[in-house]
UniProtKB/TrEMBL annotation:
The chain crosses the membrane at residues 6-23, 35-54, 60-83. It is a multi-pass membrane protein. GO terms for molecular function: NADP binding; proton-translocating NAD(P)+ transhydrogenase activity. This is proton-translocating NAD(P)(+) transhydrogenase. GO terms for cellular component: plasma membrane. It is an enzyme of class 7 (translocase).
């Protein structure tokens, strides 16, 4: 069990560093459209976390699944709000007579 935990922590650490480097290389003009795409990925994470945490027994996995549901839902909602705000900037404003 300890070997699996260590392997998971190594993968998490490496993924964190790679993710940080990739995000830093994205120009600001592409950041918001890419965030819209990442909302779909977070939606998949929500579905996966619901499947894991909805198994009926309370274990560490179900607790982590519940936390993942909350965090991924916040990410999805926040991403859609930011994307909507960006799209509002491109709408033509009506001229009042």
């Amino acid at each position: 069990m300890a070997e699996g935990l260590i392997a998971g922590l190594v993968v998490f650490t490496l993924a964190s560093f790679v993710g940080f480097e990739v995000i830093n290389k994205v120009p600001p003009t592409l950041h918001t459209p890419l965030m819209s795409g990442s909302n779909a990925i977070s939606g998949i994470a929500v579905l996966g976390a619901i499947l894991i945490s909805g198994q009926g027994n309370v274990t560490v996995t179900s607790i982590l699944g519940t936390i993942a549901i909350a965090l991924a839902t916040i990410n999805v909602v926040g991403g859609f709000l930011v994307t909507d705000r960006m799209l509002q900037m491109f709408k033509k404003k009506e001229v009042k007579a």
